[in-house]
């Protein structure tokens, strides 16, 4: 049980967060983002790596939180923002499907946990909600298609 907890916190969660944020970044690049910056974790920087137009920053508390900043000269339209927002949960859903629906990929408990956690991230981030001014990916997706008024009531 303790080993599973440490695997979840120090391996599964950070890798799943990276996959989620890469989904946002790659979707933004498909919409002509000039560059993307992914930050995994909190605290001071542990290291950074540049992969083409994507820069990844890993912080010391790498198992807590993540964000992606996508930039280009002309602002993204609401629809482009919607697709970029749903890119993260979509990548998590694809990974979850691979590791849950294809049993030969999840022969160990760690890989099954990886699939389940990615499924959790896909589901929770797809639910449209706004909490203390922070909008979920699902909320931003619906907002991008002018359904935001429905969400606000």
Automatic annotation (TrEMBL):
Residues 15-103 form the Peptidase M50 domain. One of its GO terms (cellular component) is membrane. It holds the Pfam family Peptidase_M50. Its cofactor is Zn(2+). The keyword Transmembrane helix applies. It is found in: Membrane. This is Site-2 protease family protein. It comes from Halobacillus yeomjeoni.
């Amino acid at each position: 049980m303790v080993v599973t907890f440490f695997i979840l916190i120090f391996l599964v969660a950070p890798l799943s967060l990276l996959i989620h944020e890469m989904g946002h970044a790659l979707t933004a690049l498909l919409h002509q983002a000039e560059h993307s910056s992914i930050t995994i974790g909190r605290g001071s920087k542990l290291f950074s790596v540049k992969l083409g137009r994507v820069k990844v920053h890993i912080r010391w508390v790498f198992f807590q939180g993540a964000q992606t900043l996508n930039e280009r000269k002309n602002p993204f339209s609401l629809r482009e923002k919607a697709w970029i927002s749903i890119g993260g949960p979509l990548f998590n859903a694809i990974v979850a499907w691979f590791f849950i629906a294809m049993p030969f990929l999840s022969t160990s408990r760690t890989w099954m946990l990886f699939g389940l956690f990615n499924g959790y991230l896909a589901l929770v981030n797809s639910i449209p909600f706004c909490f203390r001014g922070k909008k979920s990916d699902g909320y931003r997706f619906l907002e991008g298609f002018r359904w935001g008024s429905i969400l606000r009531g």
